[in-house]
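note to self — DONT lose this again. spent like an hour looking for the file last time. sequence + predicted structure for the chain T wanted, 478 res
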Amino acid sequence: MFTCNYKTLRVSFNEFHNTEDKERPQYGEFCLLELKDGRHTAGEWHPSGGDKSLNGKFIRGTADTVEIGEVAKWHTLERYDLTECLETEELNWINLGHEKEDGYSVQFEGFKSINDGDLPKNDQYCLLIRNDGSLAAGRWDELRNCDVPGSFIYAPALASYSIKEVWAWTALSNDEVFDVELEREREEKEEEELNRNPSTDAELFKYGKKIDVYYEKALEKLRKDYHWATLNMMKKKEPFEIAPLHGKYVFGHVSKSWYNGAPVVQEWKEGKTADEFIDFLCEYTRETVKENNPEEKFKYGLDIQVYLDKAFENTKKDYRWLDKKMLKDCYQYDIKKVKGDLEFVSRYGNEGKFTVENAESADRFIEWVTHEYQNAALRANKSVATYNVSFKGVEIHGWHLERYTFYKLKSGDYKVSVTAGDRTTGGSRDFFITPYCFEAKTYEEFLDRYEEIVPGGSFGLYKEDLLPDEKLKKFLGY
């Protein structure tokens, strides 16, 4: 590694170009920027209207850009290799370009190393010296809940430099993105301080600060209408907790922030007294309790095989080739007592732990299992022929249609697979084309029935898009 002491190192940039002189970087060139308000940042130049266009922006990351109108000066970061300098132990000053008596220069110092445990603040934009001696810049992304502490994002689609690529860093100027992060951090600290010793409203918490006391009082009232009601049933609907918020205890829904794991409290505000909250709990959980009537939920008895057999028979109506050997990789189901209540439960393979399936009725549970059996049947029925539908520029609720493929299956049946995505994610879905569709006498009538399964508004192509495709018509047997 380099022998130069980064703690005393100063780097001077001496060859700035002025945007007022109509000087622009080359397309894709990464530059240090001085903004018209005196702040410093960096970005990759992208002209709008051709490589030599005077209009454009400097890209720092996904949805993170600086327009050319904000920039006073720019200095390339790409044409320097500091390796030889950094291998000189006594060096503490590097000039990038010749210093001129009347020239303009900017100096950066205060470099730190991640190897010393010095990390930027989240969303802080930094000047970087990489391990290969090159200069770069990027916004620090803390990557919470990951095995690595973070990385420096420098381009769209989260393109980044890992910490293993960076020798030293120093912060550039604050910007709007970082200021938002600082404000969030300030609010978090303020909230944490307020909640160290939260106050308690006597009217709101006159029955104490144990949430189950309030649930039990609501349960007593519910049992007048639903004798089967239990605390466990009530809590199947997102449960309320008692938690500190803004320096006082409140009733609310509590979740964890995806961002940093901090508690997020959605306060109940529909009343001001304990009894009003209890009445609210009754109405809030009423429908859930009503739907969990054991007599309705287990109306076919407590033998799980009865329910699985019904799901199997339902599947066989359209998926005629299904046999029980095809279900060996499906979930295992049972009926067990959980917290005192009978529940449908499932587990995969030999996993020891069962998961509760919150089906409100026997018929709803059978529907879930039927859907799983349908997927198993499709997986087992191999395709023997395919046809890819041609299309151009189809957008579906912000996603772009990528593939629309019909398959003829070994059994003689058909399915269709639809794939769509955006810049960062995507997904596919398979649909079985039921025999009912093929009972249609004309191709137009077939497409009408087909659209009930794969509606154009949801999956990109409508009847009028498919109708003129004679090859598809022939592939489907019409």
